[in-house]
Amino acid sequence: MEHQVFFAIGLMSGTSLDGLDICYAQFIRNDDGWDFHILSSETIPYSADWEQSLRNATHLSSEELLQLNVDYGFFLGEKIQEFVTKYNIENPDLVASHGHTVFHQPNKKFTLQIGDGRAIKSKINTTVIYDFRSQDVILGGNGAPLVPIGDEYLFSEFDACLNLGGFSNISLKRNGKRIAFDIVPVNIILNYLAKRLGEKYDKDGDFAKSGSIDTNLLEQLNHLEFYQEKAPKSLGTEWINQHIVPLIKDQKPENLLATFTEHAALQIAQILEDYKVRNVLVSGGGAYNSYLIERIKAKTKTEIHIPTNEIIEYKEALIFAFMGVLRFLNLNNVLSSATGSLQDHSSGLIAD
């Protein structure tokens, strides 16, 4: 096979609302598989208005949500254009946008990531691929996690890949197939609690370290039904609102941070032990939470590998760019062994 080279921009907006991640990368396809190089990357913080709009999206009327879907698409298109100009990017092959998740209820066969790809397309002169999750949900899958396709082709030297974002998820090989599933909420709760203390996040886990663990609350959290369910499985904001928020209303924030950090570390370490993972690549904002990493290390024999900041921060945006390339080529970009759908498939709507 002759080398095939693609240049793609990936966009990711996570449930923790840290900002919009943009990653421009080169992907090379050859006889041995795929290689990649991150060429430019940036996180664009949301303004207070945008953060509020996205956070409150679940409470909007149908008409208001349709308006936000288009407005956010225009916003994404504008930010891509600024990014392209800033980094002197010429003629990328495509833009792949995850969008921002508002609803995710695969048991009811629907999921919604806003940010209309046609609105993005109206601002930039390149192919836009978007809405990567809906098809998988319609095919009986969880619509998540999707990044295992990138773990399979771009990070195969590790037994497992662990993402510590709004939710933590893991992908690993099991009986020759890559499986993946959400483990436990992480930054979506830790950031929520840190804001009670006037900070956007718990830097280095210092607040958690200063607090005391509430053993009764820890036991309640560890006994939530989700943790007993078999993979594949996924978490969403609705689950948080139903099962977590009622438990963490009134206590001192430092103690809640200590307790929830311990809870997350316990659940993650248990998975690493259960699946006998020898080494794991850790990415996502939680990789910077040194106290959380310390607590995970204390509970498992698995070698924890913290990569470069570029991979920590932009791995998901990188993989959505890669998923866009696979969709562009009409190759499978979603693994049924990870999501539980009927079959591997090529997912994503194309605005070209």
From TrEMBL:
Q: Which Gene3D superfamilies match?
A: 3.30.420.40
Please provide, alphabetically and separated by semicolons, the GO molecular function terms listed in this UniProt record.
Answer: ATP binding; kinase activity; phosphotransferase activity, alcohol group as acceptor
Look up the domain of life of the source.
Bacteria
Asked whether the UniProt record includes Oxidoreductase among its keywords, one would answer: no
Q: Which InterPro entries match?
A: Anhydro_N_Ac-Mur_kinase, ATPase_NBD
State whether keyword Transferase applies.
yes
| Designated name of the protein | Anhydro-N-acetylmuramic acid kinase
Species this chain originates from: Epilithonimonas bovis DSM 19482
